[in-house]
Design a protein that fits this description.
heterodimer, A: 512 residues, alpha+beta, Immunoglobulin-like, five-stranded antiparallel β-sheet, 15 strands, 40% helix, B: 309 residues, Cytochrome Bc1 Complex, Chain D, domain 2, 3 domains, two-stranded antiparallel sheet, 2 strands
Chain lengths: 512, 309
Amino acid sequence: MANLINNVKDNKTDDELHPIAHDVEAVNGPLNRELFEAKKKIYPKRTKGNFRTFKWISMILLLGFYYIGPWIRWDRGPTSPNQAILVDFEHSRFYFFFIEIWPQELYYIAGLLIMSAFALFLVTASVGRAWCGYACPQTVWVDLFITVERWIEGDRNARMRLDKAPWTFRKIYLRVIKHSIWLMIAAATGGAWIFYFMDAPTLFNQLIHFEAAVVAYGTIIFFVLTTYTFGGHLREQVCTYMCPWPRIQAVMMDVDSLVVTYHGTRGEPRMSVKKAKKATATNQPVGDCVDCNMCVVVCPMGIDIRDGIQLECITCGLCIDACNDVMDKVDKPRGLIAYDTINNEKIRQTKRDATHADGIRWPWHNYRNYVYMGLFLVVGFVMLYSLSTRDRFAINALHDRNPLYVQLSDGSIRNSFEIKLLNMQGKLRHFVIYTEGLEGASFTTAAGTQTDGKVIITIEPDRVKAFRAFVDVHKDNLPAGKQTDFKIIAQEIDGNETGIYGAKFHMPEPAK
Amino acid sequence: MSNKTPHDSNPQDIILDVLPEHEKSQVAADDYSTTGHEWDGIKEFDKPIPRWWLWTYYLTVLFSIGYMIAYPAIPLVNDYTKGLLGWSSRDMVEQEISAARLAQSKYIDAMQTASLEEVAGNEELMTFAVEGGKSAYAVNCVQCHGSGATGSKGYPNLNDDEWLWGGTMEDIYTTVAHGIRFDEDDDSRYSEMPAFLTDEILEKADIIQVAHFVRAFSGLDHDPSAASAGAEIFADNCAACHGEEGKGDQEQGAPNLADAVWLYGSEFDSIVTTISASRKGVMPAWAHRLDDTTIKQLTMFIHSRGGGQ
């Protein structure tokens, strides 16, 4: 078996119309693989076509956004950073363009993750593993690394020859260049990552002057290692053996999910154009598949799609491009390999009707898709609503635990609080603070200016103001040994936000 | 080229049958021998461990050798191997402490020269003082005054607004620095209430009458006739320090007898005991043990509890 694998002879065609046949077996085909064996290298051939174009666009957009993202500026006034996307751990803030999230509002991140999950479920259940094929960082970076490899070392056959060639100066030269570019990409990947956590221009300046924090360099080194290893060496192994997502996806897909499908009813029995001519002459059945193996050699996962749906398939569609190209050349209709549902192929097989239409019927009859989309929208609208109406001010009052109350000399009972006022806007704000619901209570604080039971507090832009506050009630006004609910209210003076904190007033046990 | 054509069956069978069958056949092929162990008919394959795992294992072995050379590792009889890097956890703690001291030095320097009012007026410095005072309090003061500064019988509550020797920042500072009735400090606050019964100044019956009179100040239950009899005795013996209305005098550390706060309790018997034998509570002076900045920090912490004047 092993001698068949990668056993490529550059088949200089057995037919004019069949110039590209590869005598090759899928490295990772289910019938070829032992349960335990070393990685076999895959040499994906270059393709052209709609899906390849889509992958280029996807790669450019995603990489472009990733690398440029931290450099986008967004003016938030003098007191806040002007980086559009910034995860500011130092000051515990998260900035995304016009949205600023405080640690108390981390549920927005949770909501975003829930939405991402449902979007992923929806995509998987309806159009299959589109995430794996076009958007997953592993796919995108592997694609980039293969592109570089192809650019330096040439296409599939040239790369295979180079691998087998002895270590000449040219080989060393090409390898050094390739690995250097890979490492540079890896370094840029880690470099871009850390820019999301600190002001990018400042950090860049520190980095090149070797003044940045150790953790910054450590992160870059980590990313260099992982990007270089995953993108350059492990590649499809990451998807097949390390990533849990392909296994989870299997249960989300069903017979109506779009997957890359080989139309066996139309393609079989497969044979070369030469044999097909002979078979036609003798009235034997002839399939459309010319057995050129182009679908196998372009596959970055090293599988043969004609073996049916497989765990390894990331549905990148490159085999579709390759096959369409060949079908054009042999004057047969496109779509021998296509995005289709298993159900359609089943219908074709059971009815022996090769003309049954392709599966680009949107699978909306699948209830799960409605549920996924519904949940996605519900979470999305809840987040949008709460984001547009959320408070940019909050009040917290932490009751002293020790002691719960203090006996004052005039017979009053005092409850002390640590009050925190959160001004989540980039401007100076003034609040009047008072209590409600305690008869004859006096309210004093260790900060602000005080006038008849009300306190005026000024809070710096984008800051938390913490101070001690004391609520005194005469002991005859409240029942002994009981807790009384009351409110601490902060009302904005020059705006309309109000913070209300529901607090409890503790009274001592009655004297015995 | 494989001669199997999976597409003879329908595609679902490909998923459900072909792959599992294939894997089954792989296992059944029994390319690997067993270890010879058998439990209830279950045999154990003798299969190689994943190579990356093996290499990780070798790497950890290499790492441990390097680690033993570089870091303290092997215990000897009276000593241990120090390692080439000279690293020690004790050094690390010292470095961390000195780094913390260095980070604090800006505030400590400022506090050394600043007056109490200046500290209180500077928000940053005040925060540092209160937090530092909280730590110093937890080490030095909780034993008597309690973790919540609530005190107990004989040990004043520092949260309330009753102050024996004054509740301004200067008063508190002086009390903390020099203590109360603390013989070893010449500047200690000093006053002594006579033990009226023990020193044979008053009769037991007089003391009981005075106790009724004292309870009357703050509206506690008392015998009115005994109280009126005690009024004269109070004026003669007590008013000099506690004032005619029992409001006390912070200059002499004489407590206010007309309010709701009682250091030794407001019970009748407790008051009789206080008058009869006096109390003579002592607080140590801290100026000899703590540096001036720490005492300032303690002052700010206590003052900020809410009762400060």
